[in-house]
Specification:
The chain has helices at residues 33-37, 49-59, 83-94, 123-132; strands at 2-3, 9-10, 39-48, 63-66, 73-82, 96-101, 104-109, 138-140, 151-156, 162-166, 172-174, 183-188, 198-201, 212-214, 219-220, 229-233, 244-245, 251-262, 265-270, 273-277, 281-291, 297-311, 315-328, 337-351, 356-361, 370-380. A hairpin with an 8-residue loop joins strand 11 (172-174) and strand 12 (183-188). The strands form 6 sheets. Strands 1, 2, 8, 21, 22, 23 and 24 form a 7-stranded mixed beta sheet that branches. It contains 4 helices and 26 strands. The protein is mostly beta strands and 384 residues long. It is 10% helix and 45% strand.
């Protein structure tokens, strides 16, 4: 029995997607040959393997589809090395099987298939796989996420320098230890899973770089700062100064298509449109609900928070976060769990009217497809 949730949009699960079997060495259509021959320089130490694969896929103009369980860190020092050699090195050092076919870069463990049967896992199979994947965050469905008040501590690593600020959803500036001049910041609200917000650092004035999106507990670097900073959330906001407000002007329409993409093409899971002023955060969510034989109501939700941080004559800087959660009933009589099966924080500089894609989860569909976010921004003409 399926019934719609009282949400902004309906989420439709995609049909099974087919994909090629993984091979022991990368193969490519002639269209990708030039990119494979392109020489790149990398100097990475203990970098996240999935992020490195994602960057390589982007360089090749492909969407990464990753078998669950592929992970770890990678250290690479390559100077003017063909992309094909970098891929071959990753295959050898991490026992991977990497294959290029069509619009996709498929990655699995060496000797293993990206799938075990002709089709995508059914709902029961997906639930069993999510329960078995202990890397996915989970909580009791009855537990509500804790909400942060937006108070944060910034600590300069290796020194005694600290600063505490209250940051809101509208842009402001803060002064941080070891940093030259005020830095523009704003806040993306937390998702429905754990309620943890993200602090968004805008690039230097006039810079073309994307924004930096940081979660509490992370250590990060900013170009304006002499050393790394650690971000922590504070329980109390008493006596903490608020970020100095920044004025923002302009109205924008942001179109976000959330897609399941695989060898059979794109399936639109949600296509919300948000109209919002510059600097303000818009939130949309979509979902579906199913009922188990025991009568438990299981939800699957997609939530996106987005903000236009800055705008020029030809483009706008957008920051957004996307998360997907799914309720699962482990065993009869056991409490329902909420498992977050995908999350991504992204910043893009978008030309007006031109869509851009980013991968939210390369393991969506358990190695059969990827979850992709496609964003388009338009400037709304001012009323006369």
């Amino acid at each position: 029995m399926i019934s719609p949730l009282v949400l902004a949009l309906a989420l439709v699960l995609a049909p099974p997607a087919a994909e090629p079997e993984a091979s022991g060495a990368p193969s490519a259509a002639s269209g990708a040959r030039a990119q494979l021959d392109e020489k790149i320089t990398l100097n990475l130490r203990d970098a996240d393997l999935s992020q490195v694969l994602e960057r390589l896929a982007t360089l090749l103009g492909k969407t990464l589809i990753l078998q669950p369980g592929v992970g770890g860190t990678v250290t690479i020092e390559a100077r003017e090395t063909p992309v094909s050699d970098v891929i071959a090195g990753l295959q050898a050092s991490h026992a991977l099987s990497i294959r290029l076919k069509g619009d996709f870069l498929y990655v699995s463990k060496a000797g293993e298939q990206l799938r075990s049967g002709p089709g995508k896992p059914d709902e029961d199979g997906l639930n069993a796989a999510y329960l078995a994947d202990r890397s996915l965050p989970r909580r009791l469905a009855s537990d509500k996420p804790r909400r942060s008040g937006g108070a944060f501590e910034f600590r300069e690593e290796g020194t005694s320098g600290t600063a505490a600020w209250e940051i809101g959803a509208t842009p402001g500036t803060v002064t941080l230890p070891g940093c030259a001049g005020p830095i523009a910041v704003s806040l993306l609200p937390g998702d429905a899973f754990d309620g943890v917000p993200r602090v968004v650092f805008a690039p230097s004035r006039g810079g073309s770089a994307p924004a930096r999106i940081v979660a509490p507990g992370a250590t990060f670097r900013l170009p304006e700062c002499s050393g790394p900073l650690a971000l922590g959330a504070l329980d109390s906001r008493d006596g903490i100064p608020k970020a100095v407000p920044l004025s923002q002007t302009g109205q924008f329409q942001l179109t976000a298509r959330i897609l399941e993409t695989g060898a059979n093409g794109d399936e639109v899971l949600a296509a919300p449109r948000i109209q919002l002023p510059a600097g303000e955060v818009g939130t949309v969510q979509a979902g579906s609900q199913s009922e188990t034989r025991s009568g438990a109501a299981l939800n699957q939700n997609i939530r996106m928070n987005a903000s236009v941080l800055a705008a020029g004559d030809a483009d706008a800087l957008v920051a957004c976060s996307v998360s997907v959660t799914r309720d699962i009933e482990p065993e009869p009589g056991q409490p329902v769990l909420t498992i977050r099966i995908a999350r991504a924080d992204e910043s893009l500089r978008l030309a007006y009217g031109k869509s851009e894609r980013v991968t939210v989860s390369p393991t969506w569909g358990r190695g059969h497809s990827a979850l992709v976010l496609e964003l388009t921004v338009e400037r709304v003409p001012a009323k006369r």
